[in-house]
Specification:
The chain has no helices and 20 strands.
Length: 324
């Protein structure tokens, strides 16, 4: 995997990009997490929008989705967008992580929300989560819940597929990813053909893209700097290939790795953070075949911070993987 020189940032931090090829407009559209302060004075994570003609140079970000109103199920934090086009009668659809409890310090429960837009700029969210696993959490535990969705349209099966992260208790053994299916992108149910799964290194929260070669690709964070510094937290991005979207550690093949050392910035990067990743995708979640991609390459963006998780230095950087 080759590090690309583009980076993207604004005041505060930037991470968790979802990058979509808007073919009708001839441009790339990126939705990503960043800090904002609302008109009511509340400051937290929101979802921003930027555009690019070449996938490298991006417009100034503008807030697209803020947290919900005080008391709403997502009134504390929204992040981790996964964006597709032409869903539910709207030109744009966004699934995202949300959490309630503004002013509290609880871990969860997070849930997956959905919002729709006809221009990609003004969004209307559902008043209830699209996926809510609160009832599944072990009673009495402050568990994280579910979030970090990655949604694709599977044309062969005529269904939407979602992978999301799930923490139903506070024990590490509860870390897993779950697949769900939907006929309309709004009402979701478990994919009974695929049990919950974990990736290599017990990683969760993969982003998926359907390759032009028919394979499924998943990108994850990892902790080895591509084998150079095992046990180094959040030091790499790893791309895996699988014949199905079910990407259990026993069923995937590693096809690329990008560590912080590859960026030739490691002398500045004590405590660096390389994670919160997303592929460049079409409006259906497939591999784009227009510049800057080709049938043998996948592009992705990711958050990169120098000092600690989500510090003010965190910006979005890019990488490209040759899969031919």
């Amino acid at each position: 995997m080759t590090y690309q020189g583009f980076n993207f940032s604004h005041q505060g931090y930037d991470y968790a990009p979802s990058i979509v090829r808007d073919a009708a407009a001839g441009q790339w559209v990126m939705y990503e997490c960043g800090v904002y302060t609302g008109s009511d004075g509340y400051s937290g994570d929101g979802i921003f929008r930027s555009t690019s003609g070449d996938g490298v140079n991006w417009s100034s970000p503008r807030i697209a989705l803020t947290v919900g109103a005080s008391g709403a199920w997502d009134d504390r934090h929204v992040c981790d967008p996964s964006v597709l086009q032409n869903v539910g009668g709207h030109r744009w659809a966004m699934w995202y992580t949300g959490i309630h409890g503004r002013g509290t310090a609880s871990a969860g429960p997070n849930a997956v929300g959905v919002a729709f837009s006809d221009d990609g700029i003004t969004w209307t969210r559902s008043s209830t989560p699209a996926v809510d696993c609160a009832a599944l959490i072990t009673p009495g535990q402050d568990a994280w819940g579910c979030g970090q969705p990655s949604v694709v349209w599977d044309a062969g099966a005529s269904v939407y597929r979602m992978s999301h992260t799930e923490f139903l208790c506070t024990d590490a053994a509860c870390r897993q990813n779950r697949l769900m299916v939907s006929a309309d992108g709004i009402v979701w149910q478990d994919d009974r053909s695929a049990p919950p799964f974990v990736m290599p290194q017990l990683s969760v929260g993969p982003d998926f893209v359907r390759g032009a070669d028919g394979w499924w690709y998943a990108v994850m964070g990892g902790n080895t700097d591509c084998g150079r510094h095992p046990g180094t937290l959040a030091s790499e991005l790893v791309v895996y290939r699988s014949p199905t979207m079910w990407a259990d550690a026993s069923a995937v093949t590693q096809v690329g790795c990008l560590g912080y050392s590859d960026m030739k910035l490691h002398k500045r990067s004590a405590g660096r953070y390389v994670a919160e990743q997303g592929f460049f995708r079409t409006g259906t979640g497939n591999q784009p075949l227009a510049s800057p991609t080709s049938a043998t390459r996948v592009w992705l963006g990711f958050g990169f911070a120098f000092n600690q998780y989500h510090d003010p230095s965190e910006e979005i950087r890019g990488a490209v993987l040759n899969v031919g």
